Recover the amino acids of this structure.
């Protein structure tokens, strides 16, 4: 119904692209929800969640409850420049979708790179369309949330029955052996059992942490609360935690570089990427950071085999693992890192390194 409604708006007003962006008031974020006329590359360049504070046009529509027409978008005033450039935006109109006094989202309409005009009657008619579409959107949100919760239940059952069982069984076996036979075991075997206990306990801890992250992300319980961090110090602390000692890892970030970001989201993203490089890549590993144009860019690069071409398309999907020598992990780290990045209004990308290796880059908007 939503797709047909968007197609009708496009045909009736001559728009090339018509979309619906959901508004999540608890986190003050915008989430792309449905679209007509958007290419796959345009859709792929959009973060899955964007802070409404960075979009002046959406803020005005939210505050007034009225449609907002922007004939000549100002750089980084109405829409962040990176998004405006990736979409090739010209004039556009935003219509709040209101139901029972609640703004559920926004209807967005534009023509690629073109400047056009809308008279008052057309804006009023679009507002009427928005009232009808809001009713469809409310039902669609309910169905989407229900489907997402059902998927989460299934994924949790799969993780609990398979991934958690292996480390739990190993820990139980080692503890029982030490409890019953420790006095009869040679020192090297006792040391090996304790080493295995440490490794499997760490693996179990990481699985539980990822599961909790997944649960919070799916329940929209992640709140982005920016605070000032010193980037180099934070990266060094994460690397020390992941590697537990000496490792061929270099942290390259300007001294004194500070950024206003959500510290928890930053830690979870970078730690998952660094752990992924340790588990599936090869040294030397480079963790670097820089800031420009209101964005913080952090890159994690290794010299392993990289990601096979056939696996790149599903790289950030949950419970997906490539054919590597490492058997650790539940295939959640990259998916969770990407979800945290999107919740922060950022984006996570992968690219191969020549002659071999993998490079993951996270770009986050940073508050002034």
């Amino acid at each position: 119904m939503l797709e047909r409604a968007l197609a009708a708006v496009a045909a009736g007003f001559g728009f090339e692209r018509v979309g619906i962006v959901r508004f999540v008031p608890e986190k003050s974020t915008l989430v792309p929800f449905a679209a007509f006329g958007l290419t796959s590359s345009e859709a792929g360049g959009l973060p899955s969640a964007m802070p409404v504070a960075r979009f002046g046009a959406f803020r005005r529509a939210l505050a007034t409850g009225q449609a907002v027409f922007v004939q000549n978008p100002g750089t980084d005033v109405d829409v962040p420049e990176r998004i405006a450039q990736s979409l090739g935006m010209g004039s556009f109109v935003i219509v709040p979708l209101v139901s029972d006094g609640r703004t559920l989202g926004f209807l967005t309409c534009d023509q690629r790179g073109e400047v056009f005009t809308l008279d008052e009657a057309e804006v009023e008619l679009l507002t009427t369309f928005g009232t009808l579409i809001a009713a469809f959107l409310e039902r669609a949100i309910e169905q989407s949330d229900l489907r997402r919760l059902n998927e989460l239940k299934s994924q949790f059952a799969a993780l609990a029955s398979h991934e958690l069982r292996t480390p739990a069984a190993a820990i139980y076996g080692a503890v029982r052996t030490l409890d019953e036979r420790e006095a009869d075991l040679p020192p090297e075997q006792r040391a090996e059992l304790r080493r295995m206990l440490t490794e499997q306990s760490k693996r179990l801890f990481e699985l539980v942490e990822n599961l909790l992250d997944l649960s919070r992300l799916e329940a929209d319980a992640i709140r982005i609360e920016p605070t000032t961090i010193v980037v180099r110090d934070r990266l060094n602390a994460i690397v020390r935690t992941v590697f537990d000692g000496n490792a061929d890892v270099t942290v390259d970030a300007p001294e004194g570089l500070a950024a206003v970001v959500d510290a928890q989201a930053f830690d979870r993203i970078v730690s998952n990427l660094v752990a992924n490089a340790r588990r599936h890549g090869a040294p030397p590993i480079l963790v670097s950071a820089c800031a420009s144009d209101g964005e913080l860019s952090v890159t994690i690069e290794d010299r392993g085999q990289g990601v096979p071409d056939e696996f790149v398309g599903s790289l950030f999907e949950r419970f997906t693992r490539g054919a590597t020598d490492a058997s650790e992990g539940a295939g959640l780290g990259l998916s969770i890192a990407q979800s945290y990045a999107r919740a922060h209004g950022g984006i996570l990308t992968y690219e191969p390194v020549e002659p071999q290796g993998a490079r993951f880059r996270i770009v986050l908007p940073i508050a002034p």
About this structure: The chain has eleven helices and 13 strands. The mean pLDDT is 83.
